[in-house]
Design brief:
- This protein has about 270 residues and is of the alpha/beta class.
- It has one domain: Ribonuclease Z/Hydroxyacylglutathione hydrolase-like (Metallo-beta-lactamase, Chain A, 4-Layer Sandwich).
- It is about 25% helix and about 30% strand.
- It contains five helices and 15 strands.
- The strands form two sheets. Strands 2, 3, 4, 5, 6, 7, 8, 9 and 10 form a nine-stranded mixed β-sheet that branches.
- Strand 3 and strand 4 form a beta hairpin.
- Helix 1 runs parallel beside helix 2.
- The termini are far apart.
- One of its GO terms (biological process) is antibiotic catabolic process.
- Keywords: Signal.
- This is Metallo-beta-lactamase domain-containing protein.
- Belongs to the metallo-beta-lactamase superfamily. Class-B beta-lactamase family.
Length: about 270
């Protein structure tokens, strides 16, 4: 087990204010820009745990991406970031205005979960960005001229901040070769990210590096390890519970039936 010291992220003054839940449901729109406006919506899923969802509108299509915000007595932990600079600034403004704290540490769960411009905004705000070594390498291959996340995470890493314990775990390949999950044992919240599909999702939408053979075994490991999860957060779509793992397994079985075994990942 590897522990990331959190003392360096302790705010100079701890501020404790009550949170008006109703404000979480109010969408935040970006300031007037030449690009189409994006929408940020934040929902509480457990005490001190929130799911920010960024909606990107391109033409008639709308895509939604989830992250995780964890409030601690020593600052905010952010799991994955928004896609572009304005969305990232919106999220940081929401944290400051609603939680009255600053983001101290951001975790990137896989190489596609953070854009170069979004990471620039985080670093401008003195936020450290950590990932696994594999994620850092994959990210750098895609963005050779940009500064990527710091490779500070081991396959199993624990971050402690006051009474908050955040576990980061690499269960194996699936949607991506490097997808890491986040677990809050006190709140029974599992951030499954791209490894998990929402209940309303009818297809896997695999990527080029998706490992369809390993993904089912990775999900079985998650189901055994986090069977007490009450809240499961997918990368896209509605938040659910532990049944999202079984739903994703069903989608994988359907994908395997539709596709010959010799075609899975191009391997015989």
């Amino acid at each position: 087990m590897f522990r990331v010291p959190f003392a360096a992220f302790r705010p100079r003054v701890a501020i404790f204010l009550s949170l008006i839940v109703g404000s979480l449901l109010a969408p935040l729109t970006s300031a007037a820009t030449s690009s189409p406006p994006s929408l940020l919506r934040v929902r509480p899923v457990a005490p001190d745990v929130f799911v920010p969802t960024v909606y990107d509108r391109t033409g008639r299509a709308t895509s939604a991406t989830n992250g995780l915000v964890v409030r601690t007595t020593q600052g905010i932990l952010l799991i994955d970031t928004a896609w572009n600079p304005e969305q990232t600034r919106q999220l940081l403004r929401w944290v400051a205005d609603s939680l009255h704290q600053r983001v101290r540490l951001a975790i990137v769960t896989h190489a596609e979960a953070a854009s170069p411009a979004g990471l620039v905004v985080l670093r401008e705000n003195r936020i450290r960005v950590y990932s696994s070594q594999l994620t850092s390498r994959r990210w750098q291959l895609r963005h050779a001229q940009a500064a990527g996340p710091t490779a500070a995470l081991k396959p199993y890493t624990v971050i402690r901040a006051g009474r908050t314990r955040l576990e980061l775990f690499f269960p194996g390949a699936g949607f991506a070769p490097d997808n890491v999950v986040a677990w809050l044992p006190r709140r029974k919240v599992l951030f499954g990210g791209e490894l998990v599909r929402a209940q309303q999702t009818a297809a896997l939408m695999p990527a080029t590096e998706t490992d369809l053979r390993q993904w089912p075994a990775t999900l079985r490991m998650l189901a055994a390890r986090y069977h007490k999860a009450r809240v499961v957060v997918p990368a896209h779509g509605s938040v659910g519970d532990i049944t999202l793992l079984a739903h994703t397994q069903t989608l994988l079985r359907e994908a395997a039936r539709r596709k010959p075994q010799t075609a899975l990942n191009g391997r015989p």
